[in-house]
Amino acid sequence: MSELFADIRTNLKIAFKSVRFNYKQYASFFAALFLIQCFFGMLTISSDMNTRITEEIVYEEYDYDVVFLDLNYYQTVFLQNDELQVFASDHIYDIVRIVDRYHAADDTTTYDVYLDLLGDMQLSFKLFKNKYMPYLQQNLKSGQVLKYNYSEVYKLDSYRINGMVSYVAIAAVMTLVSILLITSLYRIRVNHYKFTYGIYMSFGADYKQLCKTSFWEMMVVSLVTFIPSQAFSVGIIYLIYMVDGFAFTYSPLVLLKVFIINIVIVSVSVCFPMWRVSRNLVTKLLTSEDNSNLVSSPRRSFNFFNLTFPKKYEVVSMWRFRKYLATMIVTAVGFSSIFVAGFYAADVYEYTRSYTRPQYTVTLATNKIYDETLVPDLAVIEGIELVEVTATGEAAYNLSHAKIEKGAVLPTANLVVPEDDDDFRVTNEINYVMVDNKETIDALTSERFDYKIKGDPYEILTDESAVIVSNYIGNKKACDYEVGDIIKVAAFQSQKKQLDQNLQGKNRLREELKFYNFEYIELHVCAVIDGMSTLDGSPMYVAKSVWRELMRDDDAEIDTIDIYIAEDATMDDAKIIFDRIRDYTSLYNGRLVLTDNHVVSQEIITRSMKYYALIIALSFLVLAISPLIWFFSQTLFVKKREKEFSVLLWLGAIKTEIKKICQENGLILAVTATITCLGLSWALIAIIQWCVTQIPPVLYGGTESFYVGIHIPIPALIASVLISMGCGYFSSMLPLGDFLKRFSATENAREYTGSDE
Amino acid sequence: MGTILSCEAVIKQYRQYDSIVTAVNRASLRVEDKEFVAIIGASGSGKSTLLQICAGLDMPNSGGVFIRGHNLTEMPPDELSRFRGLYTGFIFQKHNLIPQFTALENILIPTVMCNKPDYSYEENLKKLIDTLRIGDRLHHLPSELSGGQQQRVAIARALINRPSVVFADEPTGNLDRANADEVLSLLLKTKELLGVTIIMVTHDLSIASHADRVYHMENGILEPLVSYKKGDPIVWNW
């Protein structure tokens, strides 16, 4: 162990001398590692803060894990006495409080029992379900359902896990980005100093030795930037969270985590450039003191007889350096494009975070409970803003499909073409939604959802042959409906042949079209509504009679009602509205189950996590990387061209012509960088949009899918374009200006003639 | 024939820490048109510095340099650059070819900058390519050429504008013996073909023995080698 420390000390000492002596060479690495350490510092501190804030808010708002609603006297006494406990270890819950509720309608009293589950909550509740629930359910009247709600405390572990998963996912992505950054900078450095590396290798340095030297040099740079970067991170995070008045806490483990990530990044980043250097022939490194290794070998020469100097001269030069320039531009502009994409990602996050969700859900125990007054009565309860009925059925599951007029289907939609009817296209990626009340249409057309609507959706309430559709299937635009378009929905009648159960998707649908008998119901489009997620199927809102035919159930009825309250409702408001709804649903004698979805508390928690501000702050850090790469790369590149400029001056060029060469270079780079920035930004945004709209949420632990459109964050794009343009231009001009100031034909003659006189 | 270049009492000094180093000490030189003059001397004698002053790449502290009657020491920098491009050519020890251009493009760069009206570059180019035997490597980058080929391209570049004077600073210094002899022979052939004047700095006495006249330089002092006869081997104690 002591040998290991001695070895580390020796390596650090040698590396420190090297870095200190050549600190200008490492300036860009200091900046890059400072940014990277800031990034991870901010990410780690905010992750810890978010976990703590979540716990704070949840424990402040909830003092129970589970609440059983509307229990009768016997059920309540059963729980109070904990009649199933035999040994001390059987004690799996404490009663926090019991609240009685008097129901004037039937002159009864029910009880809400709030429980605190002991030990592992999930395990305790599993035991509770197995042991206590059967006894509780024995005491229910016919048709009644045992009602209970979890509090957010119960879900705290899942919040913690989600937070950890988010942290790991973001850290993994940014580790890759950081490795890309340091590797790029190292490649630029190696290219500039390849002669030096050639000397090292001629004296026996191999890959292992080169890697070790580079690693320790980067570690010295990391150590110098570590404390300042962490101090900066603390400052930024403090400012972000201070706005809401949360107390700032800091764990020393942050330093350890960031340091470990730093070691990983540095280790991996030096490997590839050093491997590439070590593969080179030593002679190649020793003889290549100029930019010759960056030149793309031509097949023919250009016709220089007609060349204008310096304009076309530089165009030819840049064409020959195209590989280097393309790599440099894409790398540098890539980071500024990530900045733009970061703003888009922040907007998407904010949209999905604050998406309108039902605060409560009423579930009917059986469809025989439903009556036409249920939904209107709920809708007028004070505090309720919207009521949405959801009775859905998947077309594929119900052996149904929809035939859509060919003219309404986009060529890119790839829907099934029926063998016997070329005028229509067929799909079963449909969810039929039953509509029979005004409140559902009110919810659909509400500003809360902000869907794009064409036509009159209310027509469906008076015309059974009307249908409301979406242009999107699987979150991709598949159709371009106009009001009045005809759709034929298929109700399964019988089958001619048993189909292979292994058939799926479009193949299954084609077989159904061949071997099943359907009765088609012709509908006309009364409205087109876009903006909701269609990842699990495109919604088609149909009248109740049509829906029953498609479900092949004459008694099919509404089974779920979603209730939305005001966006700015507080926890106290939510509790009051909850009690009002309970008062109403109690009229149904326990056959309606009211679930609290805790949307208000979730909104408070997620808003406090400051992910939006964090993503924006991190995006700015990423943006700072772009000028770093521009100027580091171009400074060294122009430096290598100084010999060329000197030769041109000796051959008869004047200084203003050399300046024009670099102006030309700068202008071309500025224009190319602008186009690249626009293209890359759009591409990255499209990738994010694809991920959000196409990846099923179950794959990343999510519970709901969204549809988000592509929009370009204009201020971020403008900033990114201006920085790319400015860096493209000035990264050529500034090093040249320095050269022209230093240049006298005399100085350079001595340097480049190779004579030692 | 007349005097194409003359420099009179040229002095060049440098400050090195606290001392003054006199690289060229009152050197005077006169070169006739179409002559081949060699300046020999040991390392550090100041011969390259003198050559650079004669070519207008460096400025003396005192003294004058005249090419075709023009005083280089009184020209403003831009005018001097243009003058160099039109009337002089320079061959460096390290070829200093521009890496992103092919051999042909490198040769033609001087024509782009200093276009001589009423002058057929194409004809001159063809002669140079044939004489220097670089026709099969014209479209290759400098990194794809051997040392000898690179130097031949550099010679072609120095001569494409048909300069009045060609300055060669150790043009064979980086080459092996065989290549050095070949390059020298081609350079002399081209000289005869185009009728240019060559002033060459070298420490290789066998190369200097091809010159019409030889000077030697020692500690910044230039003196003609009066005992020299063209073609005779030069014997000199450094």
Structure description:
The complex is a heterodimer of chains A (757) and B (238). By secondary structure, chain A is α+β, with helices and mostly antiparallel strands. Chain A folds into 4 domains: 198 residues, no CATH class; 88 residues, Alpha-Beta Plaits, CATH 3.30.70; 223 residues, no CATH class; 240 residues, no CATH class. In chain A, 54% of the residues lie in helices and 15% in strands. Chain A contains 23 helices and 19 strands. In chain A, strands 8, 9, 11, 12, 15 and 16 form a 6-stranded mixed sheet that branches. The model of chain A has no long low-confidence stretch (mean pLDDT 88). Chain B has 238 residues and is an alpha/beta fold. Chain B has a single domain, classed as P-loop containing nucleotide triphosphate hydrolases (Rossmann fold), CATH 3.40.50. In chain B, 32% of the residues lie in helices and 28% in strands. Chain B is built from 7 helices and 10 strands. In chain B, strands 6-7-8-3-9-10 form a 6-stranded mixed sheet. A 4-stranded antiparallel sheet of chain B has the order 2-1-4-5. In chain B, β7, α6 and β8 form a beta-alpha-beta unit. The two termini of chain B are 33 Å apart. In chain B, 50% of the residues are buried. The model of chain B has no long low-confidence stretch (mean pLDDT 88). Classes of the chains: A alpha+beta (757), B alpha/beta (238).
CATH topology of chain B: Rossmann fold
Structure annotation, total helices of chain B = 7
- Oligomer category: heterodimer
Q: Mean pLDDT of chain B, as a whole number?
A: 88
Count up the domains of chain B: 1
**Proportion of beta-strand residues of chain B:** 25-35%
Could you give a short account of the major beta sheet of chain A? 6 strands, mixed
Q: Which pair has the most extensive contact?
A: A-B, 45 and 55 residues
- Spans of chain A of 5+ residues with little confidence (pLDDT < 50)? none
Q: Termini of chain A, distance in Å?
A: 55 Å
**What is the structural class of chain A?**
alpha+beta
Shape of chain A: globular
Number of strands of chain A: 19
Helical percentage of chain A: 40-55%
Helicity level of chain B, as a percent range? 25-40%
Please tell me the overall pLDDT of chain A.
88
